[in-house]
Amino acid sequence: MATPRNSLRGFLTHAKSALRAAIDSSQRVTFVIGNESADLDSMSCSILYAYIRSMSPPKTAFTPLYVPITNIPASDIQLRPEYLAVFKHANIESKHLITLDDLPALSDIESKLAPQNTKWILVDHNALQGQLGKIYSDRVVGVIDHHDDEGKVTQETGDEPRVIEKTGSCTSLVTNYCRPAWELLSGSALSSGAAHAQGDSLSADAVVVKRWDADIAQLGLASILIDTANLQDENKTTEHDRKAAEYLEAKVMLCPQLAPTFDRTSFYKEINAAKKDIGGLKLQDILRKDYKQWHQGGQKLGVSSVVKCIDFLQKKAGEEGSAESSDAAFLQALESFAKERELDLYTIMTTSTSAKGEFQRELLLWAFNDNAASAAKQFAKDSSDELGLKDWQGSSIADGSHGNGQWRKVWWQRQVQHSRKRVAPLLRETMT
Ligand SMILES: [Mn+2]
């Protein structure tokens, strides 16, 4: 049976307790999970898909309820100030989010959550990573994503989607996919509400449903706007993004409480400012807050995306560290981050705005052994043109060779349209 129409807050509360009950009594569960960087896009599109789908599940669904999982422990929510800014608009709080803490501990997850009792739909990635990937990859039955197809998800996905297309935001693909079902839901809810309406004014029921729609629409719209710079970044924005953003904005404008004051650009600015407000975080937290890693050719690559320049990170390291210079403190911090994760290659990609107001990117690449160093040098050679890699005139952190087979380099990445979505596959190609 479909989940009754509900607010986002009500849906998440219900899904969280239903998940607990399913684990306790070995019942089936269908998960919708975003990627391990758990950026705004991953969080919002897993929730949007699960919300709409649970209220209109296909007849053959494994379970009628779809549980959205944000791929981080609950304690990591505080590393994402942009979440909190969006939650206010979506009328939910951190405690409503379903995270890895709501799953059994990884040490005994396989016995408490038997793979055959689960199905998984991936959003914003197309290969289940880490420990979950080892146990549940065979149980993945659908995907909506905007990264390069790693070919891991079966072609035959039945009633679940297999949509992998280039867009600014995965939330755009999810919105467009869910739109027909959402329309039916809103239409039926509004007309049943309208049955009680007097004259032309909206019934109380209809107003409530419009508010619920607007809450979830703002959750989705925030991600699309962040991923496309308010639809202004021509390199990222696609027709899918424009169409989805227009649809979601219209949902907000249908809400009588919000329509008079809602302005898309101020909404974008508010969320974007929250996202950049990372000055209060520790350096290690900044490095792990938007982090992904891959195994390839027997090597391990980690990539941190950071919304501030390297200079900011060095100063931060200097304030926190005990080393004699901020350069040394910065390198120590990076090395311990990489060691903790047993990385062969570690990359930091920064985004920032220059004094002249131009969007800019830096790329730091550190190889920790001979094999990794040859991959890194190959990458530098092969990708220099495509990424527009130019020498970075910073400090001593940017020199090439070191003892112990290590190699390190920092560049300006002048072809700024290329995000981690492009850089990570280029790095992985060289790791053989
Ligand atoms: Mn994404």
From TrEMBL:
Name of protein: Exopolyphosphatase
GO MF annotation: an example: metal ion binding
Entry keyword set: Hydrolase, Manganese, Metal-binding
Cross-referenced InterPro entries: DDH_dom, DHH_sf, DHHA2, DHHA2_dom_sf
Pfam families named in the record: DHH, DHHA2
EC number: 3.6.1.11
Cofactors named for this entry: Mn(2+)
Gene name as annotated: PPX1
Enzyme class name: hydrolase
Residue ranges annotated for the DHHA2 domain, each copy included: 268-431
Cellular component, GO annotation: cytoplasm
Entry-linked SMART domains: DHHA2
UniProt xrefs under SUPFAM superfamilies: DHH phosphoesterases (SSF64182)
